[in-house]
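Predicting structure from sequence has reshaped protein science. With that in mind, we have picked out one protein's residues alongside their backbone shape tokens:
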Amino acid sequence: MPSHAEGYARVPLLERLLDTHRQEQTESPPLRVLGEAGLRASIAAELERLFNTRRATARETGLTVLDYGIPDWSDLYASNVDDRMRIERGMLRAILSFEPRLRRPNVSVTPIATEKQNLHVDVRGQLRDDREAPAVLFSIHLHNGRAVVRQT
């Protein structure tokens, strides 16, 4: 099995605890490392959880596990440039605080003209591993407050 030193990312603890094959009578070998495709899928799943959680506090810096999620943006308008920049900053802070496997993240929010409270978000960055880090793009559609993430 490839080691972490050879460029594979460790599987987050909570993902190790998931039982994805409940119907099977025997346990599969423990999953300890992810290849590039697995790492991308794991980050996409974490971004979806993160963007589907609203932060209870308005704190902007020094985020802790109690501040998990993104700020509530329901009173902002993505068509307004200042509001859109505020949404982007809040999402970027959440990614920087809670998804360390994505290096140099960049968030771009685009309003959906026909849907006032819905947004399209692109998250770009590089995978954080020991190899030359490939660029990644996660395309996120926020529809009625629910995030759906696609890897591209």
Residues 81-98 form the longest helix (18 residues). The radius of gyration is 17 Å.
